[in-house]
Amino acid sequence: xxQRTELSLEQQFSICSFATQVQQxxxxxxxxxxxxxxxxxxxxxxxxxEILKHNWGLDSGSHMA
Length: 65
Fold this sequence. Notes:
Layout: H1 9-23, H2 27-55
Protein name: NblA/ycf18 family protein
């Protein structure tokens, strides 16, 4: 996963806008924001894993023949 995906102009703008918002935060606000962002990333990853398990028939409720 070392390959970098090229971002659209809209995505690049969104990143620049986000950077501006973060620069205006206090140190404490930025720390709180990072913790919440990380929590969302972990939840998203767990959700993707559950969806993949279900779609691939690997969840505990399904039986492979």
